[in-house]
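Consider the following assembly input.
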Amino acid sequence: MSRQVSAPVMPLQTPVQGKPLFHIDNRYIAPAFITCILLAGHLSFGMLESYQKTLLAIVTSISMELVLGRIFFRKWLHPASAYITGISVGILVRSPAFWPYALCSAISITSKYVLRVKDRHIWNPSNFGISVMLFLAAETVATLSIQWGNYLWPMLVIWALGSAIIWRLHRFHITGVYVASFVVLAFLRSWMTGSPWQSELAPITGPMYQLFIFFMITDPKTTVRSKRGQCIVVFLIALLEMVLRLRRVVYAPFYALFIVGPAAMLAEIWLDARRANSAQAVAAQ
Amino acid sequence: MTGGRIAKIFLGIFFLGLLATPRFIKRISSPHEVDRSTAGAATALARHGFYLQEVSHAAGINFVHQAPALDPKLAPIMPEVASMGASVSIVDFDRDGWPDIYVTNSAIGSKNCLYRNMGDGRFKDVAAELGIADVNQSGTGVSTGAVWGDYDNDGYEDLFLIKWGRPELYHNDHGHGFTRVTEQAGMPAWINANTALWFDYDGDGLLDLFVGGYYAENIDLWHLTTTRIMPDSFEYAKNGGRKYLFHNLGNGKFEEVSAKLGINSRRWALAAAAADLRGTGHPDLFVANDYGVSELYFNDGKRFREVGQQTGVGFAPKSGMNAAFGDILNQGRYAVYVSNISEDGVLIQGNNLWMPKQGTTGDAILYENLARDFGVELGGWSFGAQFGDLNNDGTLDLYLANGYVSLDRKRSYWYDFSKVAGGNTTIIGDAKNWPAFDGRSLSGYQTKRVWLNDGAGKFIDVAQAVGVTDTYDGRSVALVDLWNRGVLDVVVANQNGPLLVYKNTVAPENEWIEFQLEGTKSNRSAIGTQITLFWNGQEQVQEVSGGSGFSAQNDRRLHFGLGKNPRIEKAVIRWPSGKIETIEQPVIHQLYTVKEPA
């Protein structure tokens, strides 16, 4: 078997500056953080439908990654990325049935290997999986919305911890631009629709958004490379989300990322190719 | 072709297969769970053994529920906050042997109705002449439910009126009228409740009363001092109404003992039911809460212990709106049915069917939710439900009312609801932060579920096939043999809608037996009395209830369907006093009137 694609590397691998007292491999920070959110949410609020369903999502995700990685890259891939995908599915998918958890994880991981352009997968895996499930299995699947307490202190803790970690990973600008855009656009929506501004701000104070802004939109593998480009893309996500919200789409943020994320990746790939061609042309002269 | 290319082709096919899986699963699962045919009575009788015909107008019942109009500060979300109040309870208030129907109304100035069963197929509203019609007056709030129980053991069922407002206790004056005894009995000045039930928790022969608050009791919904009246969380709210346990002192007075006996909860109760779940002789108490987990209180006769988490029913928070017990597998044990919310693609809580785990009994009893396995999980925005053998085949079926707010069919409030419901407590707890309904529907115009039990662990929805085609916003369901024919008819109270009376026609080859019980040492209503019927090598247990479902009370008579050619071995009656009585080989096709032996 010829090696057709490059192995997916772990997200959040930006090197850390300085010498900390103790060193934690960046690959483990995001999984550790999301695990803490999961455990805290479950132990304090019983957030998970059941341990078994989340476990099923994680096991499926990691298994798929290991098998597909073995087949296509001939090596055992580090499971951190698949773990994040699995645990995101386990938290965000809400269904009384077991099969949607396994299926969503399987679709998410497989999409990384199938939907590739120029050796890059273009959709955030869990965003792709969850969006597809909402399209195709709406009678069985919803996503986390009100299943996590609406209280202030857990939100503040997660925001503080999440911000610190994202800062350390040099991706806070993505989260920051998105949050700022959301807030401004929320007031704009309130002005346009006459809804109380509190109701327009409400979504970002909920748990679904905490996962969305810390784990989905910051995924290094499915965001463009330049810092400026990342800020523009994430603003466009917020902008499309607003358009979808004005169309009363319940899962506006997922769908906005589903559309803008790959479009931005394709644009970057096209620009890269164009630059490469120009460089080749210049070199040929 | 290289190996890598082949692998990629297989991967692509595999991926397409994954994407096709939801459609495949839907296709293979749906035909077995629903019969959507509307072929008419004869076909329904042949296929399912019964047919329901809506006969309210023909029976002289033209009741239409009116929702309350609360404080104008709530106007933008009035359809949601005023979405409950329709209820139905069954009582033979004059002891003439014909079950009567009491229904509540919820607008200020609207009248409740007591439909006296004339025995000829028609009903006559006698509430006004008996003094229990004009009970929704300005300053005293409006009705949200009613439960009947003979609290003074004089042989006539008395009325406790559940309200958002001043609750009322009416003494039944031998079927000739009702006397208001609220203050003498020691009832509180104001509650905002949707559920109550009569039960004799301490076995002293006197009916006690449980009342579960919804909104906090210091809120007058018509004169708000603040709009911060909403739940502080949509899944973990603890700012609802308090609970009351009124111990019957036997002299027409009640003592409130909830805290003293271990019931301390401010969850948002919507439904409660009591039954002896552990075989202790004491009724345990199940409370289904909106915006949170259900609560199960084990009753030791003198004290209650909340064991929701311990038993498994109180861990996953949902939107509990119903509590009903049924021995659905004919194994002498109750399942508990709790209704919740399911809306495609938005919120799939799923209803709960709590089945006792095999091998667990007594204090160690554990429950597991088998609603999905049994096929009774998805019922839309579900409200009241009751178990009963609708086709007399020997297994308990399940009737579910549903539908929340039916306004504009084409515009939905779900987007607004989901937007704000996930927000922080400082936002959702204040009604003024909620987007206006603006005429939108929220899970409106839903089709009902009539789940037929196949006796082997599967229920099939036959609502459309057997004639239940209404799409009103169903709330309260009561089952009763209205015309003493040996079949269970269905009465449904709809919010802002008509009272529906579904007359049942059952295939004649399916047999039945009924029991009307009267306590002597036990409470005279016989609430809490269990009958275990043994026939054809199986057993089914049922218990007289003082309130179950959502804001409802079934007929106190117990109805057993028996199937074809039944051979009844015995009926074992266990009275709340502890007395056990056995009727050997009772005769089918009979209503047995049984008085507790002295």
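The mean pLDDT of chain B is 95. Ask yourself how this observation constrains the way the partners meet.
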